[in-house]
Description:
Strand content of chain A: 15-25%
Number of strands of chain B: 0
Shape of chain A: elongated
CATH superfamily of the largest domain in chain A: MetI-like
Structural class of chain A: alpha+beta
Distance between the termini of chain B: 46 Å
Radius of gyration of chain B: 45 Å
Structural class of chain B: mainly alpha
Mean pLDDT of chain A: 86
Largest sheet of chain A: 7 strands, mixed, barrel
Helix content of chain B: over 70%
CATH class of the largest domain in chain A: Mainly Alpha
Helix content of chain A: 40-55%
Low-confidence stretches of chain B: 1-5, 873-879
Oligomer: heterodimer
Amino acid sequence: MNTLKKVLIWLFITVINVLLFWVFFTLLAFGNYGLGIVVGIFLAIADWAVFSKKGYPYRYTLPAMFFLFILTIYPMYYTIKTAFTDYGTGHLFTRDQAIQTLLTDPRFNYEPQEGKTLDFRVYVRYDEKFQPTEDFRILLYDNESIFVTEKLSDIRYDSKGNTINANTRMYKAQDDYINLDSSSYRLIRSVSETTLEPFSARVDNISAIEDSQKIRYSYFYSINDPSVAGNSAFYASVLRQKYIGNLEISYDTLRFRLSDRNIYRKFSETYKKYDILVTTENIGQRNVYKTIVVNKLASRNLTEKDGAFWDYDENGNLVRLEGYVQDIGTGQFEKIFKDPKITGPFIKIFIWTFTYAGLSVLFTFAIGLMLALALNDKGLRGRMIYRTLLILPWAIPAFISVLVWRNGFFNETYGFINKFVVTPLGFEPLKWLNDPFLAKVAVLIVNTWLGFPYMMTVTLGSLQSIPEELYEASSIDGASRFKQFWKITFPLLMVSVAPLLVMSFAFNFNNFVNIYLLTAGNPAMANTNTYAGETDILISYTYKLAFEGGRGQDFGFASAISLIIFVIVAGISYANFKFTKSFEEVSR
Amino acid sequence: MASIEKKNYFLRHLFLILFTVIVLFPLLWVVLTSIRRDNAAFSPKMFSSRLTMRNYTTLLFPSPNAPEIIKEMNSSTAYIGKYKQYSTEKAQKATTVLITDLKNFIAKSNTELEEISLQYTQAFELFDRQVLSHILKDINDLYHKDRKIIEDDMTSLDKQFQTLGIKKPDTSHLQNSVNAYTVLREQAVQTLFSSGLDTKSPYFTETEKLIYSIPVKMTLWKIRIYNKWLTQEPKVQSIYEPINALSESWQSVESEMKKLSEEIEALKSENFGSYLQELTEKEDELTDIRSEIAILENQKNSLNAEIFATQNQIKTVSDIMSPEEQRLKAAYELLKKADIALPSQDTMMWLESTDEQTQNLYSVIGNIERAIGLVLDDISAVDSFGDNTFKSLLLTYKEVYGYIFSAFASIAQRRDEELVHPAFAAIESSSMKMYVSVSQLHSITSSYVTLLEKASKTDTTLDSIKTKETFLQQNLELLGTENSDKKQFNEKITFIPNMTVLYSLAQQDIKTMNQASSYAKIIEDEKFYPGIPTNLKKYFLFKFYDRMTESVDKFNTAKQKLSTMFASIAQQSDILMNDLTSYMKLNYGANVAEITPVENMLETYQSSYESANADMARASRIVSDLADDSPYGEIKSKMRTIDKNIYTIQKDWEKAIRKPFLRWVLNSVLVALITSLLTVTMTSVAAYPFSRMRFKGRNQGLLFLMIIQMFPAVMYMVSMYGILKFIGDYLPFIGLDTMGGLIFIYLGGIAYNMWLFKGYYDTIPDSLEESAMIDGATRFQTFIKIVLPLCLPIIAVVTILTFMGNFNEFVLAKIILQSEDKFTYAVGLQSFTAANGPFETEWGIFTAAALMGAVPMMTIFLLMQKWIVGGLTQGSVKG
C-alpha cells in the first residue's frame, strides 16, 4: 500500500516535472521569454520544495504559487514590457510573424500580366448516401489542353482551424488519360466526342474522372455552368472556403492560384512577391546576421521604418505593408507629456479621476455618516429594518444597478427622470449622457447611491464601539451635543474609518464598472486623437485604448497608463499603511 | 423630557422613511416595470395596472412562438443551422413536429379570437343592461355642470352690460328658433327609432349622431349614409323628411345667429368704435408685414440654394482646371526659355495661311484668354472666394494664356524646335481639354455675382421689415394691456349667439350615448363655445360607448386579417406536410432548392401581420384605457380580460428576438462555481503554513499578498488579454472567448482568500495538532483530518464569497468573451442595454432579467452580511 502510494507520488512528480520542462523549453523556443522564465523559476522553486527538507512549508503553497506567478507576477512584467513597445493595431505581431505574413498572405501575390489563365471544373467523390464529400479533383483547361490535379498535400491551418495554404500538382491529359507518378486517371465523357469546336465544348461533356482504383469523381461544379448552380452553396462554403481558395497548383515551374484579378472565376499564374534573404551587417568588429525581405519583382530590399515593412507601389509611393511590435523605449510616456493632442485630454482625465474618487468618498461618507448617526440609537424602533433596507443598494450587484440607472433613469428620451421629473416641472429634457457636466453629475449620483450603504455600515460599527462613558463625562462637564460630536465622536470615528476612506478612494479610483456601464466615458472629448471621453477615468480610458475598436487598439499606450495607475495606487496604499500605524499609535 | 424624546424620534422616522423611499425607488421601479404588460419606455404612465409574468416566462422557459416556428421550419427543410447534420428521416421528423406546433398555435389563436369576440358581445350586453342607466346619470350631471357654466357667464355678462350702460341685445328670437329646432329634433329621433330600422347598424348610429350634432351636415349625410343605406333598406325613406326639416330649421337658427352677431358687431362699433378700428388696422398691418416677411424668407432660402449650387458648379470647373496648372506653367517656363519674340506681321500672315488645326487652336486659346479675363473681372467684385486658391489659379492662367495668345503665331511657327515642341503639345492638349468648361465658366461666375448681390439686397430689406414688425407688435401689445377690460368684453359678447344656442339646447337632458358623443364633439372638436373648459379626460364618459365601438371595430378588422393569414398559413403547412418527403429530398445534399410552402408562409406572415397587429394594439389600448378609467366595476373586469387575451395573441405572433438568457446564467454559475471551488482548494492548503510554520520569506510573503490584493485585476486587463491570446494558440480550451480562459484568469484572485484562511487558522489552537502528531500523524494528515474539518464554516464562507465575486465580475468577462452564447450573465445583461439596439426600449425583458440576477445575489449578500462587513472593517477592501 505504502509502496504503491510512493510510486504514485513519484510518478506524479515526474509527470509534472516533464510537463513543466516541456512548457519551459517550448516557451523559450517560441520566443516568449517572459513567461518561460516565470515558469522556469517556478519549476526550480517547486523542485527545491519537493526535494529539500527545508522546503517543506513551501510544498503547501505550490499550486497557489503557480497561479500567483502566472496571473500576478507575469502580468506585471508583461504590462511593464508592453508599456515600452508600440504594441497595438498595426503592430500586433512579432517581426518573424510579419515576415511570415509577407511570404504567405495572398495579398502579397502577383499575377504576371501575360501569365496563363485556366478555366476549371470541380469533380467530387460522393459517399454511399450520395452526399458530396470533401475529396475532390479539379479539372483545368484552356483552349488547347486539359489538366487534372492530384490529391492535396501539405495543408496548413492557423490556430482557429482555418486553412492557410494547400498544395497540389496537376498533370496534362493525353487522349483522356492522365499519367501521374504512381497512378493514373481516366476522363469519362457523357458523349464520346473529342473533336467538337470550340475546345471548351470538348470539356463540357466530361462527366467524371476515374482513378486507377475505380474511385470516381463526378462533375460537381463550374462557375460558368448554370445547370450546377444549385451546388454553389457547398462549393463556396466548404470546398472554396476550406481548400480551393488557398490552393496552389504547380505544373513544372508554373504556379497557379484562384485568381482575384478574374474575380475567382479562373485559375491563373500567381507568384510570391517577396522572399527572404539573410545578410550580414557590420556592427563594430563583428558581423551580425539579419533577415531582410526582398521584392522579387523589382529585386530591391524592403524599407523598414516605424516598426513596419514598406515597399514602393507602381506609382513610386512608399506603402506600408505589415507592421510588427518593436521597442520604442519611453515613447509612450513622452507621448503623454509632449503630444498636445494627448496631453490635454490626459490631464483632464487625470484630474477628473481624482475629483470623481474624492467626491464619491465625500458624498458617500457624508450620507453614510448622517444615516449612521440617525440609526445609532438603541431607542429607535425598527432600526434593523431601516438598516436592512438601506443596505440594499450595496447588496445588488453593481453592474445590474448601473445598467438600470442608465437605461431606465438617465435615458434622454424615455428615461424616468426626464419623463416624470424634469419635463413635468416645465424644464427642457436634460442631456444626462451627452452633456459633459450632466454626465459627471449622473456618474456621481449613481456612485453615491451605490456607495453610501457601505459607509453607513462601517460608520455605524465604529460609532457603536465608542464608549458611553465619554459622553456621560463630557455632558457633566457641560458640553453641548454639537461640541460632543466634533470633540469626541468625530475624532474617534476617524481613527477607525480614515483608512477605510482611503481604501474607498483607491477603489473608486479604479471603479471601472460604474463609469463604463453608465456613460462609457462619453460624451467624447473634443480636440483629441485618442478615444477620450469627458467622464473617462484612467482605467476606463485604458480599457478604451486597448479594447474599443473605434480608432484601433493601442495596447502599448494602454499599458503605459496602467503603469501610471499602478504607481498611484501603490502610493495611496503605502500612505495608508503609514497612516494606519500612526492612527493606531494615537488610539493607544 | 420624555415628550421631547418622542418628537425627536418622529422627525427621525420621517427622515429615515423619506430617505429609504427615495433610495429604494429604483428597485421598486425595476420590480414594477418587469411585470408591466405595456412597453414602459413608451408609456406616459409611471406605472401600469396591466400586469403580466410573461417577461419572466419568456426568459426562463423560452419556447418558440409562431413566427419563430416558421423560421425554424425554413432551417429544418434547408438543412441549415442545427439541422446541418440531420439525415432526411430525422429532419422530416423534426419538421413534422414543427408543423404540428404551428397548427396548434393557429388553432389556439383562432379559439382565442372567437373568445374575444364573445367577450366583446358580452361587454356590450353588459353595458346595455347594467351600465347604461348609471352612465347616463353621470353624463347628465356633467352636462348640467356645463350648463351652469354658461348660465354664470350669461349672468356676469348681463351685469357688465348694466355697469357699462349698454343695452343688451335681444336673444329671444334666437331662443325661439332653437326651441323650434329642438322640437323638430325630438321628432326626427322618434321617427328614427320607430322606423323599425336596425339599431345595430353603423348607419343608424351615424344618423343618430348627425341628428344630435350641430351644424346639421345634411348634404354630407345624404351622400355618405342615406344613399348607401337606401340601397339596403327602403324603409330609410321615412326618416329623410324629418331630417331634412331639421336641417332647414337649423339653417334658420343659423340665420338668427347671424342676425344677432351683426347686431352685436353694430353694438361694438357704436360703443368701442375707435378702439376697435385701431386694433383691426394694426392687426391687419401686422398680418401684411408677416406675410411679406414670409415671402422674403422664402426668396432668401431659394437664393441661398442657388448660390450653393453655383458654387458647386464653379468647384467642378476648378477641379478640371487645377490639374492642368502645373503642365501649363511648365510649358510657359519652357517657352520663355526658348526666347520667343512677339509675332511680326509676317508671322501673322503665316498663321493665316497655315493648317486649319492650328488656326482652330489659335481661336480656342483666344477664347480661353478672354473668358478668363471676364471671369476674373466677375470674381474681383466678390470680397472673398473660398480660400482664394481659385483666384490665384485664374491669375496664373491669365498670365500664361495672355502670353501664349499674344505670342501664338511665333510659337506655332517654331513648334518643331526641341524646346518648343513639348510645350506646344502640352498647351494644345490642355487647351482642348479645358475649352468647353472654361468657356462656360464666365456665365456661371457672372450669375454667381448677380446672385450674391440679390442675396445681400434681400437681407437688407428683410432686416428693415423685421424692425417694423417688432415695433408694430409692441404697439399692439400696449394697446391690448391698456384696454384689457374692453378687449375681454368684446371677445365675450361675440359668443353671445353660441352661448344662447347651447343654453337653449341644454334645457333637455341627454338620453342616449350617441347624443352624448355628439355633444362632446361639439364642445371638443368644433370649439363651439370656448368658455367651457375642456381637458383630456373631461368627456371620457360621453365617449365611452363610442370608444367601445371603435375598439370592437378595430378588433374585427384585425380578426379578419388574422383569420385570413391563419387560413393561408394552415393551408401552406398542409401542402408542406403532404409533400414533405419530396421536399426534403429536393433539398438534400449540396443542392439548395426553394421550399415554396415555407417561403409562402414567411411571406404571408411578413406581409399581413404588421397591419393586423397595429389594429389589435389600437383595440387593446382603447380597452385598457376604458378599464383604467371606468368607474363601473363589471365592465372594467370585462375590458381587462379582453385586453389580456389580445395580449396573448400578440405575444404568440409577434416577431421575437431572443437572447440565450438561461445559457448566460448557466455560464455564470458554472464559471463562478468552478472558480470558487478551485480557489478554495488551493488557498485553504496554501494558507496553512503561513499560520503554523515559520520559514524564510513568510513575512515577506504575507506582505506581498497584502499588497497585490490592492491592485484590482482590471489593471492587468491588457496582459490578461495578451496571455490568453498567446495560450489560446496552443491550448484552445483556455484561449480567448472560452469559459476555460475566463476560469483560468479568475484563478488569479487568491490573495485575499489567503488572508481570510490564515486569520481563521490562527484562531484554532495548536494543541490539537500537536497531540495528533505525538500519536504519529504526519503534519499533512493533521491538517487534512483535524484542521480542515474544524474550518468547514470558513470554507463555506469563502466559497460563497468567491462565487459571488466571480458571478458579479464584469470587466474581464467582457474582454475575454466575444460570442453571445458564451457570455456570462453580467456581459449578457449589458447587451440588453446597447444603445440603439433592439432591446434598448424593451424594458420589461431587461428588468425581468436584471431582477432574476439581482434577487439571488441580494439574498446571499444579506445572509453573508456579517462576513462581508467584518472582512471590510478589518481593513481589506475587495470590490
